[in-house]
Structure formats: structure tokens, C-alpha cells
Amino acid sequence: MSGIVDGPEVSALLGELTTMVGRADPYPRYARLREISPVVRADDGALVVTRYADCSTVARDGRFVHMPPDVLAVLGFPDWADRPSLRMMFTSMLIRNPPDHTRLRRLVSGAFTARRVAELRPAIGRLVDELLDGLDGEVDLVAALAFPLPVNVIGELLGVPAPDRAQFQPLVRDWTRILEVLTPEAVDQADAAAAVIRTYLEDLIATRRRRPGADLLSALIAVEEAGDQLSGEELLTTAALLFAAGFETTTNLLANSVVALLEHPGELARLRAEPELAQPAVEELLRFDSPVQLLARVAADPVEVGGVVVGEGERIVAYLGAANRDPDRFPEPDRLWLERPDNAPVSFGGGIHYCLGAPLARLEAQVALPALVRRFPALALAGAPQRRDSLSIKGLTRLPVSLR
């Protein structure tokens, strides 16, 4: 059995990952943590794993669960149920464990099957063309493509009217920040954003009750009205989660991918010349610079990971971004190779919490990235990208490019 390692170097490396410099390029730090030990202990007592096999275990093994929301009281928020941001997030499908998670996921999973998502390809292609048609000169690609594409796709699927969608980018960013920062200031800011989201969705649900449409929100309302499968509060939190998650990951996937391709002009040229590489290319871009860098769980029962036993109640953090650069799983892991064989990144997690929208995110990137690089052969950076201030989400808030 291996041992758990802690100490000054581990503390320093994990501390660097919380800085903007460390977040911009975490991969050398991940590599050093892997060299030190398969399992290290953070200063707050949580275990940390960085190898592909161990991160996969944490993501897929049902004995690793989310902390129940009651723990928020111990963390300084005894009134968590009265805080809009905490209640909407920590009672949502994202955080809940079986059997509630199973019930809620089953109600919405039909909208995200591979077949249903594939049927969206023509509409996504038209939307990409419309967005690219309006671009010229120097633009912020996050504002021009990486955000409007996924927010309009998920907005259409869910039933959020087009004029209302753009307002949610800063609101969702403020709300979801509580997944990694639980200071009073962060929760106050998140509460303000969550209150706006909640009020909007309450009004939209009331409208859809009167005038149902052919959208997912109307379908969920029908389930809620038909019986005991979905409560009114669960309807609202599910709608909020689906809308937020529907664009957050894809926005960062698109922005990160463009930067990676621009930094590897040979691979960019290949994608431009061979758009049929889109599917393996997106898998490799997901691996190379994952939009989701970590996930956290608690052991409900003792589980062996990385040669050590994680005890019941112990917290563990799996760095997915590190797993995707594990040389034991991916030869030459720091090389961007669009045709990488046997590619299976853990960027969307795994197990029962595997990202429900993963097929949709993949499809949007498979359509948008080849179209972008073909349309603009002189695509280039026009300034320094602005990185998102987040530990778990690796992405950009601004990506200035030249499209001449």
C-alpha cells in the first residue's frame, strides 16, 4: 500500500493552483504532484489525486458521493435553506445523491440522448454560420461565438426566449462561484444573482403553464403537474441547473480550444484542411485543456484509491485536468495531437454524475471549430486572453482575435 504524502512542497504546489498564474498553466504543477505521490493531503485535510486511474475511480465509484447540504451549516451557513444561491445549487441534481439524483436525472435524460442531440446538428450548423457571418476584423471570440452559440442552443432546447438569454452569463458566473468559494462575500454576491435567476424562471414557468410549448421546460412542467415525480422547487432548480450547465462548459471548451489550436499551428492547419477530423479533434482538445479541472467527493464507505484506503467521511479531490495529462494513460501527454488514438479524457467526469450535456457540448464544438478555422484562414490572437478567476473551471472571459 502506498502512503499519503503531505508537507511543504505539497502545500506550495496546491497553493499555486489557487493563483491566477497557477490556474493559467496548472500542468507542470500537476506533473510534480503525480511524481511526489499518487495521493497527497491538502492543508485542509482533503485528499488529492492526480493520476488518470485514481481520478476515474473517484468519478465512477458510487461509494464517493456529494456532501449533503446540511453540512453547509457546519461551514458557517446555518441558514443555507434561506439563501437563494445555496438552496438552488445544493438541492439541485448536480449535488444530490441517489435516489433523488436518479429520479431527477431520469426525467431530463431523454432530451440529451445521442440520437436527440444528433438531430440538432443542422440547427447548430445554421446558428454557427449566422454567428460567423457577422464577424470581421478584431473581435472578442467569447462574446461573438463561444458564449452565444451554446446559450442559444440550450436556451432553444429549454424554452428560454432568445432576447432574454444574454443576461445570464454574468449571473451564472456569480451563482456558480459558490461551488469553490464559500465566503460570506461570495455567497452574498451569489445570492443576488440567484435571486434574479429564480425570479426570471418563476415567471417563465408561470407563462409556460398557461401556454405550453414544444420545449423541455414545458415537458418538465407537465411531469410536475401530473404527479409526485417532481416538486415545484425541483422544477425550478432543475431548470436553473440545465440552463447554466448548458453553456458554461461549452463556452470554455470553445475558447480553450481556439487558444490551443493557435498555439499549435500545425494541428490548426490539419483541422482546416481535414474537417472530418472534428470528432477526434474535440476529444483531444477536451483532454489537452479541460474546461472542468476538478471534482470533489466524500467517501460514504471505505474505498481504496491510489494504494490507500479513503476512510468513511473523508473528502477527496480529483484533478481531472491532471488525469488528462497522465503519461501512464496518454503518451506524450503535453503534445496536442488531434488524431490521438485510444483517447478517453475524463473531462466530463464519470459514473452517475457524468455530464448530462456532454454529447451536446461535443457536437457544438465539432461543428463550430472547423467552421471557424475554415472561414478565417488568418485567424490570430489580437491581444492577451483574459482568464477566468476560478479553480475548478478553466476558461476565458475574453479572447481577442483577428479575423481578417
Automatic annotation (TrEMBL):
Gene3D superfamilies (alphabetical): Cytochrome P450
Protein name as it appears in the record: Cytochrome P450
Keyword Heme on entry: yes
Sorted UniProt keywords: Heme, Iron, Metal-binding, Monooxygenase, Oxidoreductase
Highest rank taxon of the organism: Bacteria
Record SUPFAM superfamilies: Cytochrome P450
Similarity annotation: Belongs to the cytochrome P450 family.
Record's keyword annotation contains Cytoplasm: no
Organism: Luedemannella flava
